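Hello Y.,

Per our agreement to keep a running log of every chain we model this quarter, I'm adding this entry. I've kept the format consistent with earlier entries: sequence first, then predicted structure.
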Amino acid sequence: MPGGDPQRKVTDEQIISRWGETDSVAKLAVLLNLSERALRARIARLRAGGKLLKSPNKQSAYYEAPGHWQNLDQHPGSIDLHISDGVVLIGSDSHYWPGIITTAHRGFVHLAKKLQPKIIVKNGDVMDFPKLSRYAPIGWENRPDVAKEIEAAQDRMKEIQQAAPNAERCWPIGNHDSRFETRLATIAPEYAKVNGVHLKDHFPFWRGCWQVLVNDEVVIKHRFKSGLHAPHNNTMWAGKTIITGHLHSLKVMPVSDLNGTRWGIDCGTLADAYGPQFYNYTELNPVNWRSGFVVLTFKNGELLWPEIAFVRGEGLIDFRGEVIKC
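Predicted structure for the entry above:
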């Protein structure tokens, strides 16, 4: 740019004061007339110096975990991101269970390391929380302790972080995830501002939200419509490509009209469809569920045909014409 190095014209104080205007590093880079790469380097130095970044109105505080921003008071409704060229990796409905690491999770970590996605989305229901369910136990079923579930999920999420340390990491909340705070808010609302009562307190390196919006054209959220044709109905109602979980069905359904082609996508489950999380309430009946996850590739800001990584069997993932051992 003319006039010298733009990095030297923007002070740390300017970065700190303007961060509250947006929840996206890319958008902040535009506001400050910096390259996104330069801004990320500056942010990393601020983090290394232990500086707390506050919004101008002082109502909320932000800090950067490696590559990520967190709102310490509440999660945003939507995280708006931009990607020109690169991959978005989306896995949903992990229902992480103590002592179990599924093929789908191992495959997700494998492809996170191989593809080095720009964005990773864990699309809700990271945990199951059966002990917090509003439904009564079925007989004398063994439900894991909340603390054990959180510990297991922390281990699995850390594996993903280590596989792709530079990715933006987002977590649209799922209905099972919500059980954690719903129980506390119902029986102990006076603890609302106490550290530890919010799910994000236990996962500081992931950004919570209701949805992720990529390039203003791709919506990623835990759930919308229900039923067999939910992916089709989702994109018809949304008017955009929309990726959901919740139904565990793992499918891509294109919709084409005079505006072009968009996709309704169900990103399946990272759990085993017949795992212990589901033994009792499905009564071990056949379920039309599939373990796997979704890979989105963008070129020049445009989404290519979405891809599925499908669990063929124990330790085997189908992806791009190969069977990958995981």
